[in-house]
Amino acid sequence: MSAVAKHQSHAPTGGTHKPSPAALNAAAASFAALTARLDYLSPEDTELVRRAYRFADEAHLGQLRNSGEPYITHPIAVAAQCAEWKLDAQALMAALLHDAIEDCGVTKPELIERFGAPVAELVDGLTKLDKLQFNTREENQAESFRKMLLAMARDVRVILVKLADRTHNMRTLDDAPREKWARISRETLEIYAPIAHRLGLNQTYRELQELSFRHLKPWRYATLSKAVAKARGRRRDLIQKVQREVETAFANANMTLRIAGREKTLYSIYRKMEEKHLSFAQVTDIYGFRLIVPNVIACYTGLGILHQMYKPLPGKFKDHIAIAKLNGYQSLHTTLVGPAGVNVEFQLRTEAMHVVAESGVAAHWLYKAAEPNAASNDRLGTKWLQSLLDIQDETRDAAEFWDHVKVDLFPDAVYVFTPKSQILALPRGATVVDFAYAIHSNIGDHTSAARINGDQVPLRTELKNGDVVEVITAPVSTPNPAWLGFVRTGRARSKIRHYLKTLAHAESEGLGEKLLAQALRAEGLSKLPAEDAEHQALWEKLLRFTGNRTRAELLTDIGLGKRIASIVAKRLVAMLSELGERPDALLLSRERFISHETISQGAVTLDGSENSSVRFALCCRPIPGDEIVGYLGHGEGLVVHTESCGVGQRLRHKDSERFFAVEWADEPTRTFETGVVITVRNDKGVLARVAATLADAEADITHVEMADETPQDSTDLRFVIAVRDRTHLDSVLRAARRTASVLTAARTVPAP
């Protein structure tokens, strides 16, 4: 019993007097408030929950909620909600202890010692990260959500307790300072309500939406509430008439039926009015009926009876029994034109479907004894939970992780088929690439083409309900950065980013090794010290100096421009000198004799295979044969400019130690883009003739634009073309000049 309860237990009470508020508080703060709901637990489990209550009561001693009630009333209310879902003793103990680590200074080891590791893990998963230092509130929040969602992916009871906690906090939000209402309600609406929906907890989902709406927009909530109450009064007779007619029709067909009226929530009415720009009077399907029938066959038979009674609205029938929603929800939905032309929605489902529809993941605990096929309930939402762990494997940044997860919280879905008729549910707007990654990350990574319903389609094509999707893979295909612009699922986005990051890091490591070796040559050392036992202490000392964890990380940082190779090289030479390894005087003098003013020799050779670690500047678009220099940008790898480029010259003037010698390989592995401007007479078909000439000269056109001024005698055609080298470019320009209607052809000159 809490301190408040102990203090008030001796207060005299009259037989007919109402209990005082203090006495009510004491009752709510006692274990008795929970006991009645625990009849499904064994006596041993009930005793474990009682022990957790005593510990929590002691830990929260003296703490009060904003309402003035003892703080323990909150954990009890959370545990009571979990008991409604028939969660096990461990979850109820975690519900009672969920604020103990955060607010009472209780440690995780202490909880493990008293209540066992599973309970301590649940409590830890529920604990926010307020004690850590974050730069922003958003960063803190993102990290807290990541921690909670990952704990939830490992054990779904974490989120069930969290949702019970948030539901009670929303029910008592009136007691919180008003300035907190908007933030807490928005967070609930954007995060917790969608999670509840994703896990099939529809009752909790609707309540959280309704409570958030009431505190976010109190005036609109009150106005809609009055309008619905008035409409309810006007339509009571009509609703009763429909109910009587349905009951009679089912009785005549000898079908047992449990019928319940259902009303659209105020928040869903508000959303419909906002999205479709409707007035309240135009929202017709406010009322509906839920029909609970004995089995699946009865659902379809009942649908036939309803369609015989009232005319169905075209396009308003949905079969969620044959194709269940992502969160396991199953029902038949139909909207019919009832008496007086009022639209009425009907939902038909079995008792088992009803339990899943209202309680989702929690249905596993609610009905695992009563339902022989309850194992299927256990799988509800588990695919999504598993995808959280997959996303975490590829994403270490909390904000990025949360971005991926938010994408997957939208409830709308499309249902598509594999060529073998396996059904797949994906978020609305998902593309062929999302489909490929949903099947397997290997298929996603090697996707090269796709067919929908037998027709070849672009990879960015959005999927529609019922599409049969076939993905074509090729071993040489790899994820394209452009895919990030159109993929819809968090899984696909995180897999693509992970692949590109891994690739970029591997390439940057190779570039970093080249740059450090080049800087060491300038200091008189012919090569990098080996990564062997003899030099292990040296590398460890160097890593302490640079602040990197591994040699690979250091080289990657050099390749990305986060570390200056010459500074690291100087430090390395000093350390080697201490070990007795001196610079080679001959190499040193030769390097200095032939070195450029600011650029050390031992140039980095470029052949075009460097991909993301080396970028060719768009201001001057260098090609083999040009004199070039390399600039190591901050975190962007090596950027190559032509020697004469004005942008490069300004950078060198400002940041000379970041420039490195670069040179072309004798045989580059690919073509390189450059700009050309071709001035032509405005004759008929001139663009086609010029394009044909460029193609004949083996130059690929990657971009073309024309001057948009009013037509004159001549105009400039600006092309970006891919060529092998300067010799190839010269032959392309000569061919262009010989073309009819071409006045001049030249390479684009970068701005000074």
Describe what is shown at a glance:
This is GTP pyrophosphokinase. This protein has 752 residues and is of the alpha+beta class.
Describe the structure.
Strand 5 and strand 6 (343-350) form a beta hairpin. The strands form five sheets. Strands 1, 2, 3, 4, 5 and 6 form a six-stranded mixed beta sheet that branches. Helix 5 (73-84) crosses helix 11 (157-171), helix 10 crosses helix 20 (382-394) and helix 24 packs across helix 26. Mean pLDDT is 79; it is low at 1-18, 129-135, 366-380 and 593-601. Helix content is 49%, strand content 15%. With 752 residues, the protein is of the alpha+beta class. It starts with a helix and ends in a 5-residue tail after the last strand. The protein has five domains: 3-218, Hypothetical protein af1432; 228-378, Beta Polymerase, domain 2 (2-Layer Sandwich), CATH 3.30.460; 382-497, Beta-grasp domain (Ubiquitin-like (UB roll)); 498-664, no CATH class; 672-747, ACT domain (Alpha-Beta Plaits). Keywords: Transferase. InterPro entries: ACT_dom, Beta-grasp_dom_sf, HD/PDEase_dom, HD_domain, NT_sf, RelA/Spo_fam, RelA/SpoT_AH_RIS, RelA_SpoT. This is GTP pyrophosphokinase.
Rounded mean pLDDT score: 79
Q: Can you count the helices?
A: 31
Number of domains: 5
Low-pLDDT sequence parts: 1-18, 129-135, 366-380, 593-601
CATH class value of the largest domain: Mainly Alpha
CATH superfamily heading of the largest domain: Hypothetical protein af1432
Named CATH topology of the largest domain: Hypothetical protein af1432
Helix-strand makeup class: alpha+beta
What's the end-to-end separation, in Å?
82 Å
**Strand element count:** 20
Form type: globular
The portion of residues forming beta strands comes to 5-15%
The description of the largest β-sheet is: 6 strands, mixed
Named at the architecture level, the CATH assignment of the largest domain is Orthogonal Bundle
Q: Percent helix among the residues? A: 40-55%
Q: What would you report as the Rg, rounded to the nearest angstrom?
A: 35 Å
Domain ACT: 675-750
Function: In eubacteria ppGpp (guanosine 3'-diphosphate 5'-diphosphate) is a mediator of the stringent response that coordinates a variety of cellular activities in response to changes in nutritional abundance.
Enzyme class: transferase
Domain HD: 71-170
